[in-house]
């Protein structure tokens, strides 16, 4: 252990001399106000991104001596690391070290001895007021790889948007695992289909290119989060998030809806229906609206369709009145809109189906009270109506037969003979 310490001392003395020279040549450096720290053996403090640790002290004596020294290690968030030995009264050592005109450390006290629980030092630490002397922070993953990405920023509906990521490995040591993950917002999908996760390994100074494409389900502006990259380097995982991007997708976005003025009416009453078609996209389209009557309905007035060019942020509406001549829970069909634009992008939009309750005063059934939209795949079962007559017949058939006791078997034989004669008579006639 002591041999390692002396080796460390020898190396650090050289570093300390270099630091002394740097300090002597940097009298014009402006230092911010210093702070004092008391570090016991093994303690570490973070001062403005510099981690200063009291690594070891001179061997303890029966009493404290003036030639004690402390060995420090310094690591910074900028990727730098130094070592220093500070002493107040040791030949060849100094109590102050300056590192690259950025960090200034002075040992005010160094206390050792067998009569204390642990040796400690009191340090005065200051950093330079010059931001130009602080190097740019380079992350481990950026020092190992170079990334260059390209992506589409504008497409039309039906077209693909492309993303390209070129990765260059800049070191000789191979890398076994680099994971790339892309997450798309709602409305965008990978085309062809993908889970958005790719894994690569790199040889010495190797290169890879990732390319994928996406399509939009509807027009709009999409904010896409940056691609996530995780690289396993020296058994540690380093992460990086690439730049976010914006994708604008042009085209018409045709939405159609149908509303009723009532969702429960009596038999033979009228229902007013309205169909609205709106273009929520940024391109005009030629639309054709068609609708159909529900079962038991007949149109009284109005129109059920039409065609025109529908511009962005515009609405086309039709209104008509239907008389309902059939009772029960009636499904109101979807209105259908077919559209095509000048770029030959086309499609079909549907309104949701609606459930309408038509009350027949002569028929009493359990209803669910029509109340609006229903799903296309919902099954509806018509209920069977039981009248008073069928109820009486059922009641009579369920009355118990008369019990004749021990003579019951004779009555059973008589019933069979009567049934036989009755059937024979029917055949003769």
TrEMBL record:
InterPro entries: DUF11_rpt, Ig-like_fold, OmcB-like_DUF11. Residues 253-303 form the DUF11 domain. It comes from the Archaea. NCBIfam families: B_ant_repeat. This is DUF11 domain-containing protein.
């Amino acid at each position: 252990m002591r041999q390692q310490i002396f080796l460390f001392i020898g190396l650090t003395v050289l570093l300390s001399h270099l630091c002394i020279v740097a300090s002597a040549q940097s009298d014009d450096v402006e230092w911010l106000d210093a702070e004092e720290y008391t570090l016991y053996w093994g303690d570490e403090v973070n001062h403005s991104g510099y981690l200063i640790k009291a690594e070891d002290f001179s061997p303890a004596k029966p009493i404290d001596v003036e030639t004690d020294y402390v060995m420090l290690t310094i690591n910074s968030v900028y990727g730098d690391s130094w070592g220093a030995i500070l002493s107040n009264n040791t030949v060849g050592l100094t109590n102050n070290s300056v590192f690259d005109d950025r960090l200034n450390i002075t040992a005010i006290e160094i206390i050792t001895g067998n009569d204390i629980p642990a040796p400690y030092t009191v340090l005065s630490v200051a950093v330079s007021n010059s931001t130009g002397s602080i190097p740019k922070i380079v992350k481990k993953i950026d020092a190992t790889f170079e990334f260059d990405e390209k992506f589409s920023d504008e497409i039309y509906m039906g077209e693909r948007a492309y993303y390209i990521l070129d990765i260059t490995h800049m070191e000789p040591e191979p890398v076994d695992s680099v994971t790339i993950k892309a997450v798309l917002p709602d409305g965008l999908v990978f085309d062809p289909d993908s889970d958005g996760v790719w894994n690569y390994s790199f040889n010495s100074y190797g290169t890879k290119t990732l390319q994928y494409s996406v399509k939009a389900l509807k027009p709009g502006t999409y904010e896409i989060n940056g691609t996530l990259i995780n690289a396993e380097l020296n058994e540690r995982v380093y992460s990086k998030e690439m730049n976010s991007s914006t994708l604008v997708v042009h085209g018409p976005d045709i939405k159609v809806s149908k509303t009723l003025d009532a969702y429960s009416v009596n038999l033979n009453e009228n229902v007013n229906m309205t169909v609205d078609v709106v273009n929520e996209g940024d391109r005009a389209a030629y639309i054709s609206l068609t609708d159909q009557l529900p079962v038991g309905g007949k149109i009284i007035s109005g129109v059920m369709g039409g065609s025109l060019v529908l511009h962005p942020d515009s609405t086309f509406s039709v209104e008509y009145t239907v008389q309902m001549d059939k009772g029960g829970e009636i499904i109101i069909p979807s209105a259908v809109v077919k559209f095509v634009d000048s770029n030959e992008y086309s499609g079909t939009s549907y309104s949701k189906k609606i459930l309408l309750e038509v009350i027949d005063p002569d028929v009493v059934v359990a209803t669910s009270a029509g109340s609006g939209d229903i799903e296309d795949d919902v099954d509806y079962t018509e209920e069977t109506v039981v009248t008073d007559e069928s109820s009486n017949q059922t009641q009579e058939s369920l009355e118990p037969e008369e019990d004749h006791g021990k003579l019951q078997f004779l009555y059973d034989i008589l019933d069979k003979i009567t049934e036989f004669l009755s059937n024979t008579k029917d055949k003769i006639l």
